[in-house]
Automatic annotation (TrEMBL):
GO molecular function annotation: G-protein beta-subunit binding
Role this protein plays: Guanine nucleotide-binding proteins (G proteins) are involved as a modulator or transducer in various transmembrane signaling systems. The beta and gamma chains are required for the GTPase activity, for replacement of GDP by GTP, and for G protein-effector interaction.
Family: Belongs to the G protein gamma family.
Database matches in SUPFAM superfamilies: Transducin (heterotrimeric G protein), gamma chain (SSF48670)
Name the UniProt record assigns to this protein: Guanine nucleotide-binding protein subunit gamma
Pfam family, one: G-gamma
Membrane topology: Lipid-anchor
Species the sequence originates in: Sinocyclocheilus rhinocerous
InterPro entries from the UniProt entry: G-protein_gamma (IPR001770), G-protein_gamma-like_dom (IPR015898), GGL_sf (IPR036284)
């Protein structure tokens, strides 16, 4: 075999191996991210369920303690 052809085959093989290793690395990183996101989502759901009684968006705001209620009406002269 010609030395140039052998070199090209070797470079091609090394490039192929490098691409395969890179794809395996990306796959493993993505798998870790999916696991972390699902765990975070599970924790968020659990937190919301534990604190739903104190959530004013779910229970409403008492009219006497509503900080957003207008205290005075605007009167135009």
């Amino acid at each position: 075999m010609c030395p140039v052809l052998c070199t090209k085959l070797l470079v091609s093989h090394n490039l192929e191996q490098s691409i395969i290793l890179s794809l395996h690395y990306v796959y493993h990183i993505m798998h870790m991210l999916v696991c972390q996101i699902s765990a975070a989502a599970e924790q968020l759901v659990q937190y919301c369920q534990e604190h739903r009684r104190a959530d004013p968006l779910l229970t409403g705001i008492n009219a006497s303690s509503n900080p957003f209620k207008d205290k005075k009406t605007c009167v135009l002269l």
